[in-house]
Specification:
Distance between the termini: 26 Å
Helix content: over 70%
Mean pLDDT: 86
Number of helices: 4
Number of domains: 1
Radius of gyration: 17 Å
Number of strands: 0
């Protein structure tokens, strides 16, 4: 959470605040929130949302398999999958909090 927060909140004080890859977890979390809400009221998001989540999980599982194969610890597969998902969501939530903080500071000045 903290890393995502400071990447965005610290952007005000940096000449090159962050690269685009730092925005991916934020966009992912926004997609989860908005996709969930829109899936309740519209057919198109309801059709696309599960497929996107399945694609994300395939990429996470594939990456996790690469990691456990590299370190030769197959018992860590589930923990690695869980760690990737937790990191992505917490980083994205931190980025969202940092964005709200950055916006609220601009409104105060």
């Amino acid at each position: 959470f903290g890393n995502g927060y400071w990447v965005i909140a610290g952007a005000k004080n940096a000449s090159v605040p962050f690269s685009l890859r730092h925005m991916v977890p934020l966009l992912f979390v926004l997609y989860l929130v908005l996709g969930s809400i829109l899936s309740l009221v519209s057919i198109m998001p309801k059709a696309l949302f599960p497929g996107t989540i399945i694609l994300y999980l395939i990429v996470v599982i594939s990456s996790s398999l690469s990691v456990v194969r590299l370190v030769r610890n197959w018992k860590a597969l589930f923990a690695t999958i869980l760690a990737f998902v937790t990191l992505h969501i917490s980083y994205g939530m931190g980025s969202m909090a940092g964005l709200f903080s950055l916006i609220s500071r601009r409104e105060d000045t």
